[in-house]
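Exercise 7 asks you to align residues with tokens for two separate proteins.
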Amino acid sequence: MTTFGDMMRVPGSRGSFLDSNAAGADIRMVYSPLDSLKIARQNPDKRVVFMAIGFETTAPSTAMTVLRAAAEGIENFSIFCNHVTIIPAIKAILDSPDLRLDGFVGPGHVSTVIGCRPYEFIARDHGKPLVCAGFEPLDILQSVYQLLLQLAQGRCEVENQYSRVVPWEGNLKALRAIGETMELRPYFEWRGLAFISHSALQVRPAYSAFDAERIFDVPGVRVADPKACQCGEVLKGVLKPWECKVFGTACTPETPIGTCMVSSEGACAAYYNFGRFSRERVRRATALPTPSVRATGR
């Protein structure tokens, strides 16, 4: 089994991949699915499975790897596809009755693939502004400024602050590669958000030779969110990360419980690693009625 580094720590029903490694399993961290394909090429006597995960950011590299494996006829390589799509997740958040978000900082990496057009429904149907942002400090500051300016002026639009990288229509070649090798799943279960229809990808039948779900007997195991974890409320803006019952105590980047702490880019991990205020000072600062903005995606 091969996967990205942050997946090695994700807690499951029987521990994490790191725990399985310690018990003798052969699970390797890779920086790209092409690294996994290289391992398969070098070990023709072993079945090599890549744990494919992530939003549209990482899906193109998985798709291109499947296409290369097919072109080279590498038969001992497959992917366990857990790629997710961002728009259904945003829709689920927006449809939540306890939503407390005033706007969105759009995900720069995802948008380099899908573009900005898919976000137009957020402003049109839900009256929430979105600014697609880059990753430099000035990018973030400018994006937040653009959002606050829209709110102050009573506007509601989709703006592209990251236009030097993000095309409005997206990366058509990347989208074609995804479309050729993958299709939408009817349902997919998200930690913190439960089941969302058509929110994830699976391997198309034409490439079933590289689909680990078809090659192996993968049980349909459900892993419920820990009862103490409140990631769903954090994602919807109902709670600030430090208001979660287990934040900074049972749940830390070293011992993550929920999705927002597992990922180094999650809201809870960011608050834990880079927060400059004590909890009491943050409570006082956020007691004022200021607009709340949530970053989405990876």
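Second protein for Exercise 7:
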Amino acid sequence: MYKLLIVDDEHNICEGLKVLIDWKKYGIEYIETAKSYSEAIEKGIEFKPDIAILDVCINEFRGHQIIDKFTSLGLDCKYIMISGYDDFEFVRDAIRPDVRDYILKPIGKRELENVIVKILREDFGEEFFDDESRNIEPISGKKYSELSGIVNKMISNVEEDYGQNISLKAIGDKFKMNSAYLGQLFTKETGMKFSDYLRIYRLLKAKEMIENTPHKIAYIASKVGYSNLNYFYLHFKEYFDLTPTELRENVDDE
């Protein structure tokens, strides 16, 4: 059985993370929370957590200071850092090998579960047998659990904003991170350029709309983020080997 320590100066964050996922499903039976540096150190000494979720900023202290103190006390713990977009500058100070991943707030259930599974597999040798299709990102073919919290968050942004003027620069500005670094990280983990991933996601959404709605092709193109109809037809034909009009005709014939 494993022990988890959650450290955040916001009470709602601590309590929310305690119930966000079914911790017992992953063998995590004991959970403690701390809302200050001193309380975190006290709980660390008494509780000896196997995994700790730390906010990068805890009042006037930083999460990496807790890690340094735990290390000096000889505590063997694996760390997950969490932060808001405005705090991401502090994450740079906390980049270290004993931190397993970084998750941006608001924290999603899937993101957190993926990171927990990754730690339990890689650091504790646990095995999990889940529905593989549910755990695989369909475009890249990678397991969500193999992707970092940042890349999972980028994918979530595509899922939410694919119809908008989304770009690496826009995401970089939102995360307060360098867009070139985000692009390199995305390509490294997924094997795809972010622009290619976004284009394919948009095309798949367009195909779904053509097959299941009566909307005009021009309307669908605009809804999935294409302001130029010619480019939409070109990309659609390249990817599906038929035009949007031909797909619509095939659907109508069925």
